[in-house]
Write a structure and sequence with these properties.
Chain lengths: 708, 231
């Protein structure tokens, strides 16, 4: 019995090995490649419009460039080589013949059928031995035989004979397939013999040391330094550090833009003489007198000073370009215009890092400034400008026609709530909009997802009261009501309720399913809910014709303490909703009630806490909601009392509790009607919505407060 | 006794030498780089102008020709020290508010390690600076060290308030001008309306249709202006 390791001399095994190995590596890479090359924005709906501004081509080329950057060349090459190697290996497997190991069969050797009797076997053996015994048989030179061949042939024959007649040998044959007993087996290693053959050893060692001594440390190192180079928000660490230094408690949107311009990304974008080319022209353009603002770039005096204090270089150019972008200043230079549109998405990603920094300080002002800056960057609007400029075809002249010399801006909602005839008379005219442009602009406005909050309240799942330090859920109910929607249905009061999922419904509790109203119980009038698989729906991509990226709008909900100006509950971000926002045609709003939930821990002391709730959309200017909500935290003892009344007060007679109760001499208590007290109340909405809207929300608010 | 095959040992020995050598070189280069990096970190705060003024007042070089340095009045030196303390207060407030944010951001990986190093260095520097100011104050006037930072704090708070006020007041001229213009336009509108009313009722209706538009533009605006005032 010997075990014997052999290398793959015939070269029929190693293709299998290589094939499997390449398969393991190539398939995930291919998956990655396919997933990447699919356009993620394709799955989102878009806001339908025919609007095309003068620089649509530039924006499109920038978008394409970004997508191309996403696709990695090494990945494509890797996948291609992987499949090529696999193909070659398959070819090798097909063509290389594996050596056939014949089974030792005594019948074949004796040349008799397997059904032969012992007599036949014996006679055949005798005949053969007469003929083929080495003493008798003659060497046939024509067949190139030697004496050894004859010997071995005869040994085989006698072995075969023995296997069929001798008991022991037969047993051996049956058990091991060989008359000699157990055979040594060989293990083949699926590596070509070339690797170990003499003289090639040094190359193998070299390859090995390059693989483990150079390539592995290089990969690990580049991964590690790569993670160190970028912050969690995906910007360069150096940029995040600089922006941290730029943070001030009194920072405004302009300040955020200035902070973003410190990003190191811009140094890479404007290398060498790119940093100064066209700077003078650029600055003269943005500092010229503007139509709506004192400066064309829309920057305030403070921002102008900040710009002029900068040394000329990448930062100054980036900042000037950002202001040109925000003020939609025409630069009359293809390169400058392209750079103008290229700086905005970078600033937007840098703003994300600034947002994290503002959040770490927990001050309301900078956090809001960061969100507002995001809106401005996406919509290409300067700070404190009219939200109406978000609509297509709306130029400063049109905005002026709408707003007159009023100092406060008309929001899109305000504009769209006016009767159609009045709107038309304001904006359609000479040097203003044409009839067609007006219709397109109104069409876009009617598709903008404006989240109108209907109600916001606090609750603890499964409890009636909020006790100190419990896990409170802030439930925000609201509908997407695009500005100018004409037939907005009344709010269904049952939609405003948030029903706890059944205790055994784990999917619903963990948020994988949502409840759906299926009908009303006829007797009690209580709504019946059924849990359905949650299908999350994203809002259409932001209508941002000047922003060179596709952006899916997000809503941030957070609570602030208005007295201290600090963030009480950090933002929860919602990009997807449980109900469809628009019908299948992508235009007609469904007015479905959306539920946004945010969980946080209640304060450790009982009392009334008044927060200001902000619902901020990061893509549209003037779509934010700000309202006061009051969190009423009850003493823990009170909740316990309620529980005693509720749960244990009705012991069944045969239960131990019932007996104990009777032993104490207590009468079975009647179930008390639970005090109909809502845990919350919300009041005056301060959002910039119209009066009508205020009316309907406050009506629902008072509804919920009413004691029934 | 033992017949050592030195030749055969050569290869493993060379391997060991290369291995150890690589590690030593790597760690040396790495440390050197780190040291240079941390030595070249930019300071958190810019140059301390007030401190420089104070120190140069204190160590005024004698003018050419004269033996003695010009005598600086005590009040000037004290004022310079107080100014220095005010700047220190501003810096210390900045450091205090930034500390928690910086450490939490560092933990989350939102800012880099070198920012934290710079921050800690600035913090230590400020500690030394405060101690120095207290000692200087006590040297100028015994017991002043205990209260110099209180007064400096008041001054700093006052300055912040004053800056805000100035900012608001700077707006007045602008606003006044706008209101004048607005009043004039509203007035002319009213006058026109009155004229039209006199001239005929039918035309008056057409004229008054513009008015509600003006009012309309203002109503929804209550919030944005409110927001602005809060900022």
């Amino acid at each position: 019995m010997s075990t014997d390791y052999a290398y793959d001399e015939e070269g029929y095994l190693w293709p299998f090995f290589v094939f499997t190995l390449t398969l393991i590596i190539t398939v995930p890479l291919t998956f990655l490649l396919v997933k990447r090359s699919r356009d993620p924005a394709a799955s989102f709906t878009r806001i339908q419009t025919n609007f095309k501004h003068a620089h649509v081509d530039t924006i499109d080329s920038l978008r394409k460039q970004e997508k191309r950057k996403d696709r990695k060349l090494w990945l494509i090459i890797g996948v291609a080589t992987g499949w090529a190697i696999m193909g070659y290996m398959l070819y090798l497997i097909q063509t290389t013949e594996a050596p056939v190991h014949k089974l030792w069969n005594p019948y074949d050797i004796l040349n008799i059928p397997e059904s032969a009797t012992e007599k036949q076997i014996k006679s055949t053996y005798r005949k053969l031995s007469l003929r083929l015994h080495p003493d008798k048989a003659k060497i046939d030179p024509s067949k190139n035989e030697t004496l050894e061949d004859l010997n071995s042939r005869y040994v085989e024959i006698s072995k075969a004979y023995q296997a069929l007649t001798d008991e022991d040998v037969r047993n051996n044959y049956i058990q091991y397939g060989n008359p000699d007993g157990k055979q040594g087996y060989s293990i083949n290693i699926a590596l070509p013999k070339v690797i170990v053959s003499d003289g090639n050893g040094k190359y193998v060692v070299l390859l090995y040391s390059v693989l483990f001594g150079v390539l592995l440390p290089y990969l690990v190192g580049s991964w590690w330094y790569g993670t160190l180079r970028r912050s969690k928000e995906g910007v360069l660490m150096e940029s995040a550090n600089r922006m941290f230094r730029e943070y001030k408690d009194t920072i405004d949107e302009g300040g955020v833009v200035t902070a973003a311009s410190t990003g190191k990304e811009y140094e890479e974008l404007f290398k060498g003489d790119k940093a100064d080319s066209g700077l003078a022209k650029l600055e003269s353009r943005i500092l010229a007198e503007g139509e709506l603002s004192p400066l064309a770039g829309g920057l305030s005096v403070k921002d102008k000073e900040k710009l002029e204090d900068l040394e000329s270089g990448p930062q100054r150019k980036a900042l000037a370009l950002l202001w040109a972008y925000l003020g939609r200043v025409e630069l009359d230079d293809a390169d400058l215009n392209k750079a103008k549109f290229a700086v905005a998405p970078i600033a937007h990603s840098l703003n994300k890092a600034f947002n994290a920094i503002a959040l770490a300080y927990m001050n309301t002002g900078p956090l809001l400034a960061s969100y507002y800056a995001s809106q401005l960057l996406i919509q290409a609007l300067p700070p404190k400008s009219s939200p109406l400029l978000q609509l297509p075809y709306f130029t400063p002249a049109v905005v002026k026609a709408v707003e007159g010399d009023s100092r406060v801006h008309t929001s899109i909602q305000g504009f769209m709530d006016r009767p159609d005839a009045k709107r038309r008379s304001l904006v359609v005219g000479k040097k203003l909009l044409t009839e067609e442009q007006y219709r397109d602009a109104v069409g876009v406005a009617k598709q903008l997802p404006f989240l109108r909050v209907a109600k916001a309240y606090f609750k603890v799942t499964g409890e009636r009261f909020i006790i100190p330090s419990s896990l409170v859920t802030l439930v925000v109910k609201g509908r997407f009501v695009p500005p100018g929607s004409e037939t907005v249905p009344e709010i269904n009061p049952t939609d405003l309720e948030d029903v706890d999922p059944a205790e055994d419904d784990l999917d619903a509790i963990s948020g994988r399913k949502t409840t759906k109203l299926v009908g009303k119980d006829e007797k009690t009038g209580k709504p019946i809910y059924e849990s359905v698989e949650a299908e999350l729906i994203a809002a259409p991509l932001a209508a941002a014709p000047y922003f060179a990226r596709d952006h899916s709008p997000r809503w941030h909900v957070f609570l602030t303490d208005s007295k201290q100006g600090r963030v009480a509950v950090p933002p929860f971000t919602f990009a997807q909703f449980d109900r469809p926002i628009f019908e299948a045609d992508g235009k007609t709003p469904t007015f479905a009630m959306q539920t946004l939930k945010a969980q946080f821990q209640a304060p450790p002391q009982a009392g009334h806490y008044t927060f200001v709730m902000h619902v901020v959309c990061d893509s549209y200017v003037g779509f934010d909601t700000k309202m006061e909500v009051t969190l009423i935290v009850e003493e823990a003892s009170k909740a316990a009392e309620m529980e005693v009344e509720d749960e244990i007060s009705e012991p069944e007679e045969d239960s131990i509790a019932g007996i104990m109760n009777a032993a104490k001499g207590g009468e079975p208590k009647k179930r008390k009607q639970p005090k109909p007290k809502e845990e919350e109340e919300d009041s005056d909405e301060e959002s910039g919505t119209d009066d009508e809207d205020d009316d309907d929300t406050s009506a629902t608010n008072t509804d919920t407060e009413a004691e029934d | 006794m033992f017949d050592i095959n030195w030749r055969g040992l050569l290869l493993p020995l060379a391997y060991l030498v290369v291995l150890v050598g690589t590690f030593v070189t790597f760690s040396r280069v790495y440390r050197k780089r780190k040291a240079i990096e941390s030595a070249n970190l930019a300071p958190w705060f810019g140059p301390h102008l007030q401190r420089n003024i104070y120190l140069s007042l204190l160590h005024l070089e004698p003018e050419e020709g004269s033996e003695k340095a010009p005598k600086i009045p005590d009040s000037v030196i004290r004022a310079a020290l107080l100014r220095r303390a005010v700047e220190d207060i501003r810096r210390i407030i900045q450091i205090r508010t930034a500390k928690q944010a910086c450490s939490s951001l560092l933990q989350r990986g939102s800012v880099g390690d070198d920012l934290w190093q710079r921050f800690q260095r600035a913090e230590k520097e400020m500690e030394e600076e405060l101690r120095d100011v207290v000692m200087e104050a006590n040297g100028l006037l015994p017991g002043w060290g205990q209260i110099i930072f209180q007064s400096a704090n008041e001054i700093a708070a006052n300055k912040v308030l004053r800056d805000r006020l100035d900012e608001v007041e700077a707006q007045t001229a602008n606003d006044k001008e706008w209101w004048e213009k607005r009043r004039a336009s509203v007035k002319s509108g009213f006058m026109k309306e009155l004229d039209e009313e006199e001239s005929g009722k039918g035309q008056a209706k057409a004229g008054s249709e513009d008015e509600p538009v003006l009012v309309d533009t203002n109503t929804p605006s209550a919030t944005p202006s409110g927001k602005k005032s809060k900022k």
